[in-house]
């Protein structure tokens, strides 16, 4: 009904909603509702709290699966419902020119767990502890490569289960990341740490991978997987692999072009929304473009190219990119970008430390351990994220179409992008903390007088209340902060 009501306005803005096709989505309906927290196991929590323990660098620092269990209260207080943990399998043990494999992406043996993080029983206990709280577990996996330290000959015999030289493409580093064949057959890395590229086009190797992921799921009962370096493996590898896993799968396709990334949704249920990430940075961090351009690129272009935007994972920080606050000194802009990830189409991903306003730059500064924050739940960013995520959970519970109905644009101009979803109105701006403005937005509704709750200020000063009156949304932007206006009925 609502979608039909807005169709004429959507068409004039150049957006025509696509009806989803029926397919095996491996639990997408459940994952759309999740608020995901990405963590690096080594950097999230140790078995026993030691807030003065070293928290940065390129060596193992002692985070464990048991440590994660001890901080589930913290994550739930943030509004998190699903936890994405870093890769779980055994990595190379050398201390390389780039440090140790604390992050988990330098695989040596896929048949063994990484003992630095704990035992098989510890991992099972983590998944069980999450399930007992009605939370989900997503594990990160690597199917593209193994790892080798230095420029010398690679000893393939050390790897499991692919221990023969013919299991790998010939050593040749990728030169052109926009060249598909180069990405599929070339090696990532360099002569400090190189990543031998597995021949995932080989049917025998594909079969081994399928058996491996099926075994892993049986053993540990996780709920989803995130596939690292997905664009470096041929797309046809994924459907039988995901079928064998029989869980929701989200692909990392590190590229800003929606058409390039969107294709992968025909092979896996979900992708990380890198196209949105780049638009968030261009709009709210570098401020290279206004809100009209943001709407064109971050909404229209993505909707045209993605098979289903509602299953995309939205983020503004992760372990591979500098923290947003590393260069952004305007808190209002950071909150606008955050609100976009939470309330635009897709599901939000909060990266460890984002809620503590970490501001590190490139690796390893963007991977600092969380214990240095003392797991503070009183700082302003923690409270903002917690409030917004909990409002989103309420909206998901009350409105069955909240996660599947596309956002409906209400106003688009150079200063503002306003949209609505069931039960909420959202206004974004990149004008910064000096921007103040009263706003009136015509609505297609017969509601004559209805107050709205401001997620950032539930009891605003007199005269600054937000409301719908005479089919018009009346509100104001103060100090450049976004507006998240909630139907008060969801609070009771």
Describe this structure as you would to a colleague:
- The protein is an alpha/beta fold.
- It has two domains: 23-406, Glycosidases (TIM Barrel, Alpha-Beta Barrel); 410-491, Immunoglobulin-like, CATH 2.60.40.
- The protein is 29% helix and 18% strand.
- It has helices at 2-12, 28-31, 41-44, 65-70, 72-78, 120-132, 180-185, 203-220, 238-245, 258-262, 274-285, 291-305, 331-343, 380-398; strands at 36-39, 82-85, 89-91, 107-113, 136-141, 148-149, 188-189, 193-195, 224-227, 248-251, 270-271, 313-314, 347-351, 408-412, 416-421, 424-429, 437-442, 449-454, 466-469, 472-477, 483-486.
- Strand 14 (408-412) and strand 15 form a beta hairpin.
- The protein starts with a helix and ends in a 6-residue tail after the last strand.
- The model is unreliable at 1-23 (pLDDT under 50).
- The record marks 320 as: Transition state stabilizer.
- This is Alpha-amylase.
- It holds the Pfam family Alpha-amylase.
Descriptive keywords:
single chain, 492 residues, alpha/beta, TIM Barrel, Immunoglobulin-like, 2 domains, eight-stranded parallel sheet, eight-stranded antiparallel sheet, 14 helices, disordered N terminus
């Amino acid at each position: 009904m609502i979608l039909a009501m807005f169709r004429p306005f959507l068409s004039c803005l150049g957006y025509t909603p696509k009806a989803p096709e029926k397919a095996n989505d491996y639990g997408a309906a459940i994952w759309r509702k999740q608020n995901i927290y990405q963590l690096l196991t080594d950097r999230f929590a140790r078995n026993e709290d030691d807030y003065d323990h070293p928290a940065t660098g390129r060596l193992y620092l002692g985070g464990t699966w048991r440590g994660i269990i001890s901080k589930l209260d913290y994550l739930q207080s943030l509004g998190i419902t699903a936890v994405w943990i870093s890769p779980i399998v055994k990595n190379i043990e050398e201390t390389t020119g780039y440090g140790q494999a604390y992050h988990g992406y330098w695989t040596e043996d896929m048949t063994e767990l990484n003992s630095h993080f704990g035992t098989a029983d510890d991992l099972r206990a983590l998944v069980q502890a999450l399930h007992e709280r009605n939370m989900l577990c997503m594990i990160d996996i690597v199917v593209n490569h193994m790892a080798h330290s230095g420029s010398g000959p690679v000893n393939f015999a050390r790897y499991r289960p692919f221990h023969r030289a013919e299991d790998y493409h010939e050593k040749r580093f990728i030169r052109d990341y926009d060249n598909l064949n180069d990405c599929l057959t070339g090696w990532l890395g360099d002569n400090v740490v190189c990543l031998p590229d597995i021949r995932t086009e080989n049917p025998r190797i594909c079969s081994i991978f399928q058996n491996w992921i099926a075994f892993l799921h049986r053993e540990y009962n996780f709920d989803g997987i995130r596939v690292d370096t997905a664009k470096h493996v041929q797309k046809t590898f994924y459907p039988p692999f995901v079928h064998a896993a029989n869980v929701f799968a989200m692909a990392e396709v590190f590229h800003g072009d929606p058409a390039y990334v969107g294709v992968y949704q025909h092979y896996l249920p979900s992708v990380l929304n890198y196209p949105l990430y780049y638009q968030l940075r261009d709009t709210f961090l570098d401020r290279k473009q206004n809100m009209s351009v943001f709407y064109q690129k971050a909404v229209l272009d993505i909707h045209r190219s993605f098979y289903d935007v509602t299953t995309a994972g939205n983020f503004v920080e992760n372990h591979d990119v500098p923290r947003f606050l590393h260069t952004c000194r305007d808190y209002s802009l950071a909150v606008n970008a955050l609100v976009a990830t939470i309330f635009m189409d897709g599901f939000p991903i909060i990266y460890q430390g984002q809620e503590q306003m970490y501001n590190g730059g490139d690796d390893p500064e963007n991977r600092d351990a969380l214990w240095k924050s003392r797991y503070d739940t009183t700082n302003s960013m923690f409270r903002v994220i917690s409030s917004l995520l909990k409002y989103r959970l309420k909206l998901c519970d009350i409105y069955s179409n909240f996660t599947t109905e596309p956002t409906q644009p209400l106003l688009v101009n150079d200063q503002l992008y306003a949209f609505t979803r069931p039960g909420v109105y959202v206004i974004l701006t990149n004008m910064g903390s000096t921007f103040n403005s009263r706003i009136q937005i015509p609505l297609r509704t017969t509601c004559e007088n209805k107050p709205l709750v401001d997620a950032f200020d539930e009891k605003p000063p007199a005269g600054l209340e937000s409301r719908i009156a005479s089919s018009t949304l009346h509100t104001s932007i103060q100090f450049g902060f976004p507006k998240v206006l909630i139907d008060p009925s969801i609070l009771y």
